[in-house]
Amino acid sequence: MTMNQLTGQIISAAIDIHKTLGPGLLESAYKECLFYEITQRELYAEKEKPLPLVYNSVHLDVGYRIDLLVEDKVIIEIKSVDSLNEIHLAQILTYLKLSDLHLGLLINFNVLLLKNGIKRVVNGYS
Questions:
Q1: Which of 34, 48, 51, 80 is spaced 20 to 30 A from 72 at the CA atom?
Q2: Which residues of 18-28 are buried (b: 16+ CB within 10 A; e: fewer)?
C-alpha cells in the first residue's frame, strides 16, 4: 500500500466519523472512533503510543504520546479546537522528528466540513 493509499484510508475513516458524529465532541471520543474505524479497515494502529525524547543519547520519558500511529508510518494528531494554529503544527512536526517518521495527519474534528480540518504534514526530505 502506498503512502497516498494509506492516508486516503485514514482520511476516509475520519470523514465517516465526522459525517456520523459531527463537530463538538472531545478529542478522546474522536480518537477512540478513529482507532476503531482504522482497525476495521484492517490497518495496524496503536493509540497513545509513548514517544521518548532522546537527548545526548539518553532516552527520557517526558510524557509525549502519539494519538494514533498507523502501520508504523503515519502519525495522527487529533484535535477538537476552534481552529488549528502554529502550535498544533509544531507539535506534530516535533513528533515526526522525534520518531524519525516523515508523514503525519493533523485532524481537527471541530469544523463544519472535515476537509477544512485536515492538514497533511511532511517532515524533512520525504
A1: 80
A2: beeeeeeeebe
Most confident of 51-55, 57-61, 65-69, 97-101: 65-69
The span from the CA of 123 to the CA of 9, in Å, is: 20
Residue 43 one-letter amino acid: L
Q: DSSP letter at 72?
A: T
Three-state secondary structure string covering 14-61? HHHHHHHHCCCCCHHHHHHHHHHHHHHCCCCEEEEEECCEEECCEEEC
Question: Does the reported pTM lie above 0.90?
Answer: yes
Domain spans in the chain, listed from the N-terminal domain onward: 3-122
Burial of 56 (0-12, 13-18, 19+ CB in 10 A): exposed
| Predicted confidence (pLDDT) at residue 61 exceeds the cutoff of 80 | no
